[in-house]
Specification:
Family: Belongs to the FliW family.
Subcellular location: Cytoplasm
Order of helices and strands: EEEEEEHEEEEE
CATH class: Mainly Beta
Strand content: 25-35%
Keywords: Bacterial flagellum biogenesis, Chaperone, Cytoplasm, Translation regulation
Shape: globular
Radius of gyration: 15 Å
Protein name: Flagellar assembly factor FliW
Subunit structure: Interacts with translational regulator CsrA and flagellin(s).
Structural class: mainly beta
Number of domains: 1
Helix content: under 10%
Strand order of the largest sheet: 3-4-5-6-7-9-10
Largest sheet: 7 strands, mixed, barrel
CATH superfamily: BH3618-like
């Protein structure tokens, strides 16, 4: 299957690798199906690209690489929506807000993207935990407000 993207142009994707979101990412009601496209083999970033909307894409990364003590408990409702039965079938990503200079970029730890990897269902979860929506990408600077 071919899709058009703003960042990568026209690319071929494996339809079996698409992720269906069980609820919309806030502000993007027309995008329900996404695919993760790596920015490069040596880079820890992906584009979470909408299949339905060419211009809808989010830079994401694994939050545990940037904050090793990041932890949260999913609600039973979220687990049910995603069909999560085992933790080994879950991937978590954080949306990155890119800034100039790059070192000023931040992660949204408050609202991670949770993906059940067997059935490929996704959801952006808003956490009650005290995590910031703008955590410094390097994790060493003071929190950006």
């Amino acid at each position: 299957m071919f899709i058009e993207t703003d960042y990568f142009g026209k690319i071929e994707i494996n339809e079996a690798e698409t992720i269906t979101f069980v609820s919309e990412i806030p502000g993007f009601p027309d995008s329900k199906t996404f695919v993760l496209i790596p920015y490069g083999e040596d880079l820890p970033f992906w584009s979470l690209q909408s299949i339905e909307e060419q211009a809808c894409a989010f830079v994401v990364t694994n939050p545990f690489w940037h904050k090793s003590d990041y932890a949260f408990e999913l609600s039973d409702g979220a687990k049910d929506q995603l069909g999560i039965e085992e933790a080994e079938h879950v991937s978590v990503y954080s949306i990155v807000t890119l800034r100039e200079p790059f070192e000023s970029s931040t992660l949204n730890l408050k609202a991670p993207i949770v993906i059940e990897t067997k059935e490929r269902r996704g959801k952006q979860v808003i956490l009650d935990d005290a995590y910031p929506a703008r955590y410094p990408l390097g994790g060493t600077k003071a929190e950006v407000r």
